[in-house]
Specification:
heterodimer, A: about 150 residues, alpha/beta, Beta Polymerase, domain 2, five-stranded mixed sheet, two-stranded parallel sheet, 3 helices, B: about 375 residues, alpha+beta, Cytochrome-c3 Hydrogenase, chain B, four-stranded antiparallel sheet, three-stranded antiparallel sheet, 9 strands, globular
Chain lengths: ~150, ~375
């Protein structure tokens, strides 16, 4: 039988307590834990060491030119529960540490985040293009809100 | 690069399957010592494209992410958008969606049996399995009018009901397929020539499967009990549950056996749905604009967990749709698993994860020694 989502989320929240700035429960089986950018590696390491779930995806979000912020969401799944580590980064110089040291499978998620949103992932084992062609212009990030296909012509 | 290293480039045209990917195998004699994978040849910018289309238009765009598991993409998207809207599709619609999901799994797994058999040089099995796959394609066409993009989903429900004649046709088709599947299980677990290509090849331990983040049948063939249908039931999977199929061997044979045995689960659950199809409406009313918020939906595609993150800003178009397909989780293992094997085993190991390039087009570079 599946484990109860509430218990799993509580376990994850107590693992993440040292780094949590804010915790939300947007859906019954989800917890969003806001952490500082420099805490992403220790927080991911703690979840990994406790055997809580696996890194399912990293979602990038652009909050827009006016807000001047990007967000990176690290989704971990265990049974029915999803815990998301939310990190806010400045839009003009977004840098975050790689979690590949503890979770090697994060490599392609980090590369996607990097080329689509212009986030520099420090220490990621491979920073080559993932989706985009080799001749894609530098400094053009197609999932940022101010991306205009005319930039490519 | 040392001068005495040999690199064998394969692809990007049809390295194994009829989809593009580029592979560079470093070999010592016939033995692979390193593998580099370069994908990205069918990247189409779908995630960005969703931001310029309405919620309803996106249903049709998203169904076209994949030409094999089209329905599961549309289902994951519809479930996420329905969460944002606070609408639940009626029970009959959920059961019909599940039925389509399982018919899709049957056609996908049979397709895969054929492709993988072809890679093994066993073309008789390839042709038989694809002949039999036509049975399920005809059933899907009979239900929806289409073989691949059934377009059965609406936001809030489904378009198609199932009448008596369709029900009988499905049951007849399943009886035939079930009998054929017994034969396939016998072949993939007993045929001596075939087993020389699969037994002990591409071994992945449970620990490795977890480390590489493997999902779906690939993970389950290494003893990792991960199946969203069971772990986090969606649609009607709590009313019509499936059993997780596990194998602990972790080699290619296990990946064959797990997928073939999953077919029996699909046949069983489809019969159960047809037997106890809940009565009622096919669709609930959905708003044109979605309330602001974020939703995550997870479903079990034929290849493993498919993950959608959808954000609404309150408008008639999504703010962001993030798609994480199962193949990207499984690709990571291919490069590592080929190392130490004969070069001739590489296509089989690639086929063993049932990669879907269009779904997930990305690039993975694996470096080892």
């Amino acid at each position: 039988m599946t484990k109860d989502a509430t218990d799993l989320l509580q376990a994850a929240e107590s693992i993440l307590a040292p780094w949590a700035k804010e915790t939300m429960r947007p859906e019954p089986a989800r917890a969003d834990v806001v952490i500082a950018p420099q805490d992403v590696v220790p927080a991911a390491t703690a979840l990994h060491a406790a055997g809580w779930g696996f890194l399912t995806a990293i979602t990038g979000l652009d909050l827009g030119v006016e807000a001047g912020k990007l967000e990176a969401l690290y989704h971990f799944c265990e049974g029915p529960a999803v815990v998301t580590l939310r990190v806010t980064l400045p839009r003009d110089n977004p840098v975050i540490d790689s979690v590949c040291g503890v979770i090697p499978a994060a490599s392609f998620f980090e590369r996607e985040l990097s080329e689509m949103f212009g986030v520099t992932v420090a220490g990621t084992p491979n920073s080559d293009k993932l989706f985009l062609p080799e001749d894609w212009p530098d400094g053009v990030y197609p999932l940022r809100k101010d991306f205009n296909p005319a930039q490519l012509r | 690069m040392e001068a005495n290293k040999f690199i064998v480039p394969i692809g990007p045209q049809h390295p194994a399957l009829k989809e593009p990917g580029h592979f560079e195998f470093t070999v010592d004699g016939e033995v692979v010592t390193n593998a580099t994978i370069r994908l990205g040849y069918v990247h189409r910018g779908v995630e960005r494209g969703t931001e310029d289309r309405t919620w309803v238009q996106n249903l049709y765009l998203i169904e076209r992410i994949c030409g094999i598991c089209s329905h599961i993409h549309a289902t994951a998207y519809a479930l996420g958008v329905e969460k944002l809207a606070g609408v639940t599709a009626p029970p009959r619609a959920q059961a019909i969606r599940e039925l389509f999901c399982e018919l899709e799994r049957i056609h996908s797994h049979l397709l895969w049996v054929g492709v993988a058999a072809h890679e093994a040089g066993f073309d008789a099995l390839f042709m038989y399995s694809w002949r039999d796959r036509e049975t399920v394609m005809d059933l899907l066409e009979g239900l929806s009018g289409n073989r691949v993009h059934y377009s059965c989903n609406l936001l809030g429900g489904v378009k198609f009901d199932i009448d008596e004649a369709q029900r009988d046709a499905i049951l007849r088709g399943l009886d035939f397929l079930e009998q054929r599947t017994h034969h396939y299980l016998d072949v993939v677990t007993n045929d001596a020539a075939f087993l020389r290509r699969t037994r002990g090849v591409g071994m992945m331990t449970r620990e490795q499967a977890i480390e590489y983040g493997a999902v779906g049948p690939v993970a389950r063939a290494s003893g990792v009990a991960r199946d969203v249908r069971v772990d986090a039931p969606y649609l009607a999977y709590d009313q019509f549950p499936v059993n997780t199929i596990i194998d602990t061997a972790g080699d290619l044979e296990a990946r064959f056996a797990v997928r073939v045995r999953e077919l029996f689960e699909s046949y069983r659950v489809i019969r159960e749905i047809l037997d106890k199809l809940p009565p009622g409406e096919l669709a609930a009313k959905m708003p044109r604009k979605m309330p602001p918020g974020e939703a995550i939906s997870r479903v079990e595609a034929p290849r493993g967990e498919l993950f959608y993150f959808i954000k609404s800003n309150g408008g008639d178009k999504p703010e962001r749709v993030k798609v994480r397909t199962p193949s990207i989780c499984n690709f990571g293992s291919v490069g590592r698993l080929t190392i130490g094997h004969q070069l001739a085993d590489a296509p089989m190991i690639l086929a063993g994860i049932d990669p879907c390039f269009s779904c997930n087009d990305r690039v993975v570079v694996v470096s080892t020694k």
